[in-house]
Design goal:
Order of helices and strands: HHEEHEEEEH
Shape: globular
Largest sheet: 6 strands, mixed
Radius of gyration: 22 Å
Distance between the termini: 83 Å
Helix content: 40-55%
Strand order of the largest sheet: 2-1-6-5-4-3
Strand content: 25-35%
Length: 160
């Protein structure tokens, strides 16, 4: 009888431990899934194809950079990306990290390039920032709030 009672108490502990392990796997899977999403997003920027970048957003997705005018919808998102890609034809975006906090994903990046596009002055820039993403039910960016040090960026563009 003693063995039966000790076995009965072990079963809930084993089930509890299994649930914890499953939950940890799900969290790891979420991190891995989002890391891959962010790496692919970086590759889309580096492809210099603005439509590829815009494809990571919902059809009615929104990007607001430094509190400026929102780019709403894939067409405007592609135009925003194209403006950077045109001004900096050799641009390179590097993913620095991705932080997950509940349903918000913070994508940290570094942008490097030479301002040799139309009207460019040949000055190099190297600046960092982040985007804070909220995804929709399809796993696409619904809203992104982008932030970087605009004063530092402008100093670099001017060659100061």
């Amino acid at each position: 009888m003693k063995n039966v009672h000790s076995s009965i108490f072990k079963i809930p502990v084993i089930i509890f431990m299994a649930l914890i392990l499953i939950q940890c796997k799900d969290s790891t899977s979420e991190q891995e899934k989002m890391e891959e999403f962010a790496q692919n997003y970086t590759a889309a920027w580096n492809s210099k194809d603005p439509q590829k970048m815009a494809s990571f957003y919902a059809e009615d997705g929104v990007l607001i950079v430094n509190g400026g005018t929102p780019a709403i919808g894939r067409q405007q998102l592609a135009k925003t990306a194209e403006s950077y890609m045109t001004a900096f034809p050799d641009m390179e975006l590097v993913m620095d990290s991705l932080v997950i906090d509940s349903d918000t994903y913070r994508y940290y990046w570094t942008f490097k390039g030479t301002n040799t596009g139309p009207g460019g002055n040949g000055n190099r820039v190297n600046f960092s920032g982040f985007e804070e993403w909220n995804l929709n039910e399809d796993g696409l960016v619904q809203r992104s709030i982008g932030t970087y040090d605009l004063d530092d960026y402008l100093r670099q563009v001017r060659g100061e």
